[in-house]
Amino acid sequence: MKFDTVADALRNSNTPQPFSELGLKPDEYERIKSILGRRPTSAELAMYSVMWSEHCSYKSSKVHLRKFGEIKTSKNVLAGIGENAGVIDIGDGWAATFKVESHNHPSYIEPYQGAATGVGGIVRDIVAMGARPVAVMDSLRFGPPDSADVQRVISGVVAGIGGYGNCLGLPNIGGETKIHASYEKNPLVNALCVGVMRHEDVHFSKATGEGNLVVLYGASTGGDGIGGVSILASEVFDETKSAKRPSVQVGDPFTEKLLIEATMEMFASGLVEGIQDLGGAGLSCATSELASNGGAGMRVRLEEVPLRDSDLSVEEILMSESQERMCAIVRPENLEQVMKVCEKWGLKASVIGEITGEKNLVITWNYQEIVNVPPRTVAHEGPEYQRPFVMPISNSKGHTPCTGADFGLKSENLKEAILRVMSGTEVADFSAITDQYDRYVRGQTVLSANADAGLVRVSDDSTKGLAVSLDGNGRICAIDADLGTQWSVLEACRNVAAVGAIPQALTNCLNFGSPEDPEVMGQFVAATNGLATAATALDLPVTGGNVSFYNQTGETAIVPTPVIGALGVIDDVHQHASSEHLDVGDVIYVVGELLEDLSGSLLLETMGLSESTMSLPEISYENEARLITVLPALISEGLIRATHDISDGGLVTALVEMVRGHRSQALSVVPDDDVEPFVWAFAEFGGRVVCVVKGQSVARFEKVADERKLTYRRIGDVISSNYAEQALEIRGFCQFTHEELIIAFQKGMLLKH
Amino acid sequence: MTRVGVVTFPGSLDDVDAARAVSKAGGEPVSLWHDDADIKAVDAVILPGGFSFGDYLRAGAIASLSPVVETVVKEAAAGLPVLGICNGFQILCEVGLLPGALTRNAGLRFVCRDQRLRVEDVNSPWLRNYYVGQELVIPVKNGEGCYQISKDELSELERSGMVFLRYIEENPNGSLADVAGVRNAQGNVLGLMPHPEHAIDVLTGPSTDGLGFFSSIVDSLVKAG
Predict the structure, then answer these.
(1) A172: nearest CA in chain B?
(2) Quick one: which of A344, A392, A452, A538 is 20 to 30 A from A729 by CA?
(3) ipTM of the assembly?
(4) Angle between helices A698-707 and A621-636 (to 10 degrees)
(5) Min CA distance, A582 vs chain B (Å)?
(6) What is the pTM of this model?
């Protein structure tokens, strides 16, 4: 194999290099030359190009993400932004970690593997922190499901998430799936993983201790997921060789399961000093980040990397994104034990290098230097752009609320409007999706699909539970990315509170179009502002996140889609609320403050009445924070039979979703006299939750709510019914049978059984 | 205390759940390793659910060749009670301890749902706490749960009460005759696709209907011993 050495680079300093094909700008290439004091070798060029890519370096977003690190909160953050995943203290010596990552583009090209490896990647991030992964969740966006191509994507993505997660043995505890035309050729696949550990088990990806060994273990390295680097390998070094390989990675969940168990065993026995998973940019990323984080030098012998394909060039080995690999820093005296653990789990492992007292990361191939770089310049000191941006015009300062009457909607058409919203894709029956995911494995799942938030018990010997919700709302973020993001944060927190947990931390996955478009960049900046505003107001840390740019088809960007993850803690998992339980004689309340406003609502979008000049209502954080705090207290007192957050589709949708699993009960409710019926049924702001209160607890419920100054309104009762009869009665207006509702839900199904 | 071995293969997933269920039923779970033929003198063995060896080749095919299974086969002939759940059922069929085979679900998709079932036979130490005709709700979650067997063998199974568990209302995977579980003629070896270990606590499962498998074996062996 021909390869380019540091000596070659010094000797032939003017060799032309294909930096622009690798995505580097001329000034970035010049900067690499000035860092090194010579031209990079082709291996170095490959490393810099991929590590300085938008995906790895966050070069367009970094300046705007710093504000998350500056948020002051009272919460105990054990590891924050910059680590593989943020870690928070959840009490009693337990810690939790969670993170979301996007795998949008691969999932359009190859839906099954794209989605599968998205799950695999985020799980390894959690493992790298020292945590046992305990659950996964996903937030998905597709185009309208009536086209064959969208069906290809939906069914592939869902099968991929299931295929990987089920085989890996992690329960899927929920998520969301939404539809918009802008996602037709650019679906969003955002996967979340949550992990649990004891405080003393938190690990950081750091290479420290001169003489310690770098051990690569897991799958062997192949030519998958190399993407742009194959340009370099094929065009520069071997023009005869076919380097066309799939650029979407291929996942092997079985190996990932072994990798998790082996890593857990190494952590438990104290065998590793630091660990890093191999994800985007493969070995280039893992070695440079470990060295940079530890402030150490490292020598790597690339020929020690176990290969699946002996034809790989050195550049390809460095860039390969073969899945299910980890890199550990091990003291020499622990090596034998580490190798034994790997052997027990049937994993390949090899020592590929060691920590040195030097400053640089040096990589050799057959004793010749092919890389000699300061690791920080690769991993952490990449370019940083102040991209020009145009802040979207927010009409929200002079916001005027709108009602059904403004659009000529008449109350005699209320039933028709309700059925139309219920027949849409947002309120559909998602069981053909969620039934493909194992929600039971590990035996700790308390709530999953159809619940406001997923809920898992921390361990068999604890009563603590972790609640997680993932929420994004492109519809309102398209109107106002800043306020829309704030409302999304509130929705995620409310969902967590609605099951009885107190929110403790936020994470995010920010999906946008091209950052080179100043308007898209403006939406992005507005969304980061919104997230920081909401996090500050709610006293919550943003413990990590992910940015996905270039989500667009041609010149058309997706609607801005910041997806927010909220993690909450419940001290006694037995005292949770679900949205499912109803009993005849229970009383239905709505808690929280109604804003009499249909702006940004699913109703207007469904009826084709949404206008681009619309604005969103401002937020009263005092009211919102009160709801999020008081709700878990009411639930932990055992007063509440069921809760359900009011979001897309408003109150009527929440009620219908609560009654749809029932055959012998119905909800009978009375609209407020002083509120327009369409607003009563469909308004989505402010934060409100339906609470079904046990008959005997009504007095106590109202007393506590009064004491805590929580706004509530009693709207009706749970009554007995049967399948042939009504499911929902809106007194004075209309009623719906169970059958009518089921037919409606099936119309919007994205996948058929 | 009744000692119940739970085997871990590479890729086993519900081993912790099976061990938890044994504890909850008052037994002592004993962890067994696929590569070790020693089954530590346990009183009964559970082959748990999961994707042993990634389900590569065929679900259960590679696991059926492991040293621990060799011992289990030998001891089962001598009367050792063995329960195979999901992937464990697939392994028991592969190794010939139970008749029939499990193939891809009729819908070609993985299915996870709370399944209604009916107990058809209780002649087994794993079933003494159930009664014939009892209806249960236990989760199913599998991609290859479609039970297949020849017509003649099926009528023989039916005649001798070896089909001990059947799907009712909806068949989740296209199994012949709605078969959800079968036992051997002696009744000591049982395999089923549903996951009783996920129905032992209403906090984390749809019911406690699955606990009976574990309490049955504990009670049977205590009383026998």
Answers:
(1) B112
(2) A452
(3) 0.96
(4) 140
(5) 16
(6) 0.95
